[in-house]
Design a protein that fits this description.
The complex is a heterotrimer of chains A (about 325), B (about 280) and C (about 280). Chain A is an alpha/beta fold and about 325 residues long. Chain A is about 30% helix and about 25% strand. An 8-stranded mixed sheet of chain A has the order 6-7-8-3-9-10-12-11, sandwiched between helices. A 4-stranded antiparallel sheet of chain A has the order 2-1-4-5. The chains are: A alpha/beta (about 325), B mainly alpha (about 280), C alpha/beta (about 280). Chains A and C meet through helix 6, helix 7, helix 8 and helix 9 of A and helix 6, helix 7, helix 8, helix 9 and helix 10 of C.
């Protein structure tokens, strides 16, 4: 299943920092939503991004998509895509380049499909609005392409004539996926696309995402807080905590042998049918990103916390090939250097 | 208070509105220092154009326009405020109760509401004047107008109350044993207060405008000086034909200033209470 | 002795559509079960959206009246509860926990207000000292204390803490039954299990019966004693929780169980997914 053997990564994120800077009523506040995040996504790969609410994962993908607005600002680092050998630095690129890249090379599947489907317009209209200018064909040919695409995804092309409210939630999300993939983009960002769906529907939507990814061979970042979804979909997984990436590696290995204490807890606490062994919750609460604890941001809740964790931030270290962890308990500071 | 200061600094409409309205209010408060009672006539020489002695001139009835105007604008503002306040209370009570209670209560209150929305105001008020005639007073008119002026805003408040009703904290309140009155006044009221403030301005404008119109036509108590009554008397003395333009111009100017001030305040408040334009919390 | 709660063939229909094209939606259609008074248990109602599980919860909380059938709490039909006094007496025995901890408290108000209100109105305490003691005791039961909560606003706390406070509020009057509608679905993963464990602790240590409403079979398996699986307003399967979930009989229950993504599938990337997806299409 490992398709990561391909050449250059499609997305390279380097030491990215994105902060919310708020000054209202004479009070300055800095929320470090994404702090020093480095990772890459290979061609033809599903990269999972896991983390709790307000751990910065939404900010991270917003920054990657260059969809940032004040008060969010990129303070440092870079986001570079590689679209068929043509590098695009999303932070440096002008608006025109970004607009040209969007949807053709880089598209999104979001949680609320209503954000891409206009409730008072037929579904066909959404395809025209988003994809027509990228495909660059005349209208009848364009619609033929859309119909063929829908058919490939096992969707009835007749839904083009429907209004969004006539479709069920799962069907709308499938249409949103079809919409995001009709231009056959190299890169797709999926932000909690199945969170609002029932389990049975969720599975068929996930299967559809995986199938279409396999068919186009694009790369996908899949964001969700639900580790069970990650386990069943993603090739590689990155775990975020309080604005930082704390662990990364192939999904199977992370679930088999988690290294970071936070990941260890998450994996151990997942309830499973057929298993009633007591599972512990984690003490404490996720830190506020406006005033994160010094050193490792996980140390106040960490069972393995040492003195150094309270003062120094553990670096991301490659402990095994393709396996990175940011924890002093895993890589003692002396050895890591 | 911080909000007010902030608005003053960053919102030009608000600043201008405050300055204009402040000017009008200061002018109205000068009435307490007036050397002449408002209803006395021939205390000064009649028909004197604006001069150093009489800055806004005098009327054909021998009144100083400046001092008379201070009384008039005071009464007009008070009238507008009284109407706005009374009708706000009505619309708050009816809107909150209808939205919270729902069902049959809501249906009864809202059919009442619809009735008041479609009633033609002006003929009713004129009719009211003809019924009351000599008993017509400032207070009665204010009462009548507040009974007519609550309907639109009650609907607005009801719609907010309905959405508040479905929020989980309302249910937590119920299961904390709070009574309906407690929930409405303590849990829901804070959410509708901004709207009450902004519609207060609009409603003052509406009632002042209607009062001026009625007075100019003589359908009110013409012995209490208001801006409208002032213009009514000026018309009675054919002031414009007689060339006593200052008797008409200054009242009109003052009421326009008050109008614009209130309008700007309402607009800027509206902008402020729109949650989209307010940045209060940030999530990662 | 009358059972704690008796739900007898309860039905709730809603009229939909306009006057011309009226059709009725049966949100809950003939649900029956009984909870014993002497043996506290966690009774789980599992269902997807539209299964009627939330309507059922609201009927048990006496917020919605059943269209047919009856719900009896300690032998009293909920329909007979009319006066304010009777309502308060009922709320003293039966308390809710809601889904979204961020919505459960008015963001403009302090949190302790709801706790004190409950102590005063529902538990019937009058002295300030008593009210604070009862509040503090309830907060300690959920691993917090009044000192930590006093004067705080909802936005200052995390979802997990807020949900604990919501549970503490429900506990102040020492109720016999708590109806928890999806209490952990909006709580972060690292805090979820501690809330679930807390529910179990309430049953074991305080003798509170809990109706746990959820769509999540895994946590249902973890804490439930008995379970019913609902679909379109009807109960399709019921019984002892482990037995039902280990070996579901009804085709819908089987599908539901197959659809649960297991974290143990990691690495076989998508194999199980494909199976459950095909099961979903049938």
């Amino acid at each position: 299943m490992s398709a990561a053997a391909s050449t250059a990564p499609v997305l390279q994120v380097e030491a990215l920092r994105a902060y919310y800077k708020i000054s209202s009523f004479g009070l300055d506040r800095e929320v470090r939503a994404v702090d020093d995040v480095t990772f890459h996504v290979n061609a033809n790969e599903i990269y999972g991004l896991a983390g709790e609410s307000s751990c910065g994962k939404t900010t991270l993908i917003r920054t990657i998509a260059a969809a940032i607005k004040p008060p969010l600002r990129v303070v440092g680092g870079s986001v570079v895509f590689n679209f068929a050998g043509r590098p695009v630095d999303m932070q440096k690129a002008d608006d025109e380049t970004v607009a040209a890249v969007r949807w053709k090379h880089l598209s999104y599947i979001m949680q609320g499909s209503m954000s891409v489907l206009n409730p008072v317009r037929r579904v066909e209209r959404a395809f025209v609005d988003f994809a027509f200018r990228h495909i660059g064909k005349r209208k009848p040919e364009f619609l033929d392409i859309v119909r063929a695409h829908l058919q490939r995804l096992d969707l009835n092309p007749d839904i083009l004539a429907a209004y969004p409210h006539q479709l069920s939630g799962g069907m709308r999300q499938r249409v949103a996926i079809a919409l995001a993939t009709v231009c056959r983009p190299e890169f797709i960002i999926a932000d909690e696309p199945t969170t609002a769906l029932d389990v049975i529907v969720q599975n068929s939507v996930l299967a559809m995402i995986r199938d279409v990814q396999k068919e186009i061979g694009s790369s996908l970042i899949f964001v969700t807080h639900d580790l069970a979804v990650h386990a069943n979909l993603c090739h590689r997984l990155g775990i975020m905590y309080a604005g930082r990436l704390v662990e990364e590696g192939p999904t199977a290995e992370i679930f088999k042998a988690p290294k970071h204490p936070y990941t260890t807890h998450l994996v151990a606490s997942l309830p499973r049918i057929g298993n009633t062994a007591p599972k512990k919750g984690l003490e404490g609460t996720p830190p506020s990103l406006a005033a994160p604890p010094p050193g490792c941001r996980f140390h106040p809740r960490c069972p393995l916390a040492m003195d150094i964790c309270r003062t120094q931030n553990p670096p991301m270290v490659e402990v095994l090939p393709g396996r990175r962890v940011a924890c002093f308990a895993v890589t003692p500071p002396g050895r890591a250097a | 208070m911080r909000v007010v200061l902030d608005l003053f600094r960053y919102n030009r409409e608000f600043a201008i509105g405050v300055v204009l309205l402040g000017f009008v209010v200061i002018f109205a408060s000068l009435s307490f220092f007036s050397p002449y009672p408002p209803n006395d006539s021939f205390v000064v020489p009649p028909d004197v154009p604006p001069s150093w002695a009489y800055p806004l001139g005098t009327t054909s009835r021998g009144q100083d326009v400046f001092w008379l105007l201070t009384f008039a604008i005071r009464n007009t503002l008070l009238f507008g405020f009284a109407v706005a306040l009374l009708s706000r209370i009505l619309s708050l009570v009816i809107g909150l109760v209808a939205g919270y209670a729902g069902g049959i209560v809501d249906r009864i209150l809202m059919s009442l509401n619809d009735t008041f929305i479609v009633i033609p105001l002006f003929p009713i008020l004129v009719l009211f004047y003809f019924v009351m005639r000599d008993k017509m007073s400032w207070g009665l008119l204010a009462l009548a107008m507040s009974c007519l002026g609550w309907a639109y805003d009650a609907r607005l408040i009801r719609s907010i109350a309905m959405s508040l009703r479905t929020r989980e904290f309302t249910e937590t309140s119920i299961f904390s044993g709070m009574s309906m009155r407690q929930i409405l006044t303590q849990e829901h009221l804070p959410y509708v207060m901004p709207i009450v403030f902004s519609t207060l301005m609009n409603n003052m404008n509406w009632s002042i405008g209607l009062e001026v119109t009625l007075s100019v036509l003589g359908f009110t108590d013409i012995n209490t000086p208001t801006i409208g009554v002032l213009i009514y008397w000026a018309n009675q003395h054919t002031a414009l034909v007689a060339g006593v333009w200052w008797w008409i111009l200054f009242p009109v100017l003052l009421v326009v200033i008050a109008f614009v001030g209130l309008f700007l305040l309402a607009v800027s408040m509206n902008e402020h209470i729109d949650p989209r334009s307010r940045l209060n919390r940030v999530t990662g | 002795m009358a059972p704690l709660l008796e739900v007898a063939d309860v039905q709730r229909t809603y009229a939909l559509g306009s006057i011309l094209s009226r059709h009725r939606l049966r949100a809950v259609d003939g649900v029956s079960f009984t909870m014993a008074a002497d043996r506290p248990e966690i009774f789980t109602v599992v269902g997807e959206s539209g299964s009627g599980k939330t309507t059922l919860a609201r009927m048990i909380l006496n917020m919605v009246a059943p269209t047919a059938g009856a719900i009896r709490f300690r032998g009293t039909d909920l329909r007979q509860i009319r006066s304010g006094k009777e309502r308060l007496a009922f709320m003293r025995q039966v308390q809710p926990i809601f889904q979204n901890p961020f919505e459960a408290f008015n963001p403009l108000k302090k949190l302790d207000r709801y706790l004190f209100m409950t102590a005063r109105n529902i538990a019937g305490l009058t002295a300030v000292g008593e009210i604070e003691d009862a509040t503090d005791r309830a907060l300690r039961n959920v691993g917090l204390s009044l000192a930590e909560i006093r004067g705080r606003y909802p936005h200052e706390l995390s979802g997990g803490q807020l949900q604990r406070i919501a549970i503490a509020r429900a506990l102040i009057s020492r109720p016999a039954l708590i109806v928890a509608d999806e209490p952990v679905s909006m709580v972060d993963a690292s805090l979820r299990m501690s809330i679930v464990n807390l529910l179990r602790q309430l049953r074991d240590e305080m003798g509170v019966s809990i109706i746990y409403i959820t769509h999540d079979l895994a946590t249902a398996y973890y804490i439930s004693d008995r379970i019913i699986i609902m679909r379109k307003g009807q109960v399709v399967e019921s019984g002892e929780a482990r037995a039902v979930l280990d070996n579901p009989q009804h085709p819908y229950s089987i599908r539901l169980k197959q659809a649960v993504l297991s974290p143990d599938a990691a690495g076989s990337a998508g194999r199980l997914l494909a199976e459950s997806a095909t099961a979903a299409e049938t």
